[in-house]
Amino acid sequence: MIKVFMFLQICLLGMTGNSWGEEALSKNALPLWELGLFNGAVRLPHYRGADEYKLYVLPLPYFIYRGKFIQSDKDGVKGIFFKTPHFESIISLSGNPPVDNDNKAREGMPELNALFEVGPALKWFFRGRDALDTLCLQMAARGAFSINFDSGADVAYQGLHGSVHLIYNNRSLFERNGLSLVFNVGTDFADHELNSYFYDVSEDHVLPGRHFYESDGGYAGFSASANLLKTITKSLSLGMYCRWDNMSGTVSEDSPLMKEKNNFVVGCALIWKIAESGRLVNSE
C-alpha cells in the first residue's frame, strides 16, 4: 500500500503546473500544494469482525493538492467532476492493509492482501459547501481490488462496497484554539464477492469450530467515528482519531470468521508540514 500511495503522490506532483487563471482569492485562501510527513500510530482489527488487532506505527509522506479537478487531502485522492453550492460529485480512493497468516481464526487459510477501493461518491451539503461548519450526506460506491506485491503488482477484483454516511465538520467552536472536529456516522453494504473475500470458509478449510460458510450480499455494518485536529504551529499539527464499527445484523454475522460484533479503532498522528506552494488558491 505504501508503493501505491507513493505512486499516486508522484502523479499529483506532476499536476501542479496547471493553469489557474485570474481567480479572486478569499481570506481563507491556502497553498496550492503542501508536502510533509505524517507520523502516525493506529490500532486496527485484522478485518471488520476480527477479534485480533495490529498496531501500525510508521512515518509516511503526505501530499495535499488543492486543484480544481484533482485534489489530495486527509480524505484521500479525489477527482471532482461536478459541483454546485450544495452538491459535489467525486471519484474517491480508499484502502485497507493486508492480513497476514498469523490470524488464529484464519489459520491455514490464504492471506488477505491489501485492498484498494475506487469509485464515485456524491455529497449533498445541507448548509452549503462554503459554510464554516458543514453537514453533508455522502453516498459512495467503490470497486474493491486486492493488491499483492510479492511477484510484481498482482491486482484482482474482489467486489463492490457501498456506503451512506452523514459527516459533520465543525471549525468554529474551538477556532481560536486551533481545533477542528469531524463526526461521521453511516452504514456500509457489500456484495457477495466482497463479503466472500473476508468471511467465506471453503470445504478445504473446515476445522473443528470453523464450519463451511458462503456469504451473501447486503448490509455490512454501522460505524461512528470522530477525529480532532489541533494546530500547534504553522508547520506542526496533532491529530487524534477513534471509530466504532458494529457488525450486528449484518449478512455475514453467522460466519465462523466473524468473531466480534464490535470493533474499536484508535489512532494519533503528529503532522509536520515541510514545504508548501507559493501560489494560493481558494479552499473550502
Characteristic key phrases:
two-stranded antiparallel sheet; Outer membrane phospholipase (ompla), Chain C; 7% helix; 284 residues; mainly beta; twelve-stranded antiparallel β-barrel
Short description:
The protein is mainly beta and 284 residues long. It has two helices and 14 strands.
Please specify the SSE layout and strand pairing:
Blueprint: H1 2-13, E1 30-31, E2 33-45, E3 53-66, E4 70-73, E5 76-83, E6 87-96, E7 114-125, E8 134-148, E9 154-170, E10 179-190, H2 192-199, E11 218-231, E12 236-246, E13 262-276, E14 280-281
Antiparallel strand pairs: 1-14, 2-3, 2-13, 3-4, 4-5, 5-6, 6-7, 7-8, 8-9, 9-10, 10-11, 11-12, 12-13
Order of helices and strands: HEEEEEEEEEEHEEEE
Overall geometry comes to globular
Major sheet strand order: 2-3-4-5-6-7-8-9-10-11-12-13
- Beta strands, count: 14
Average of pLDDT: 84
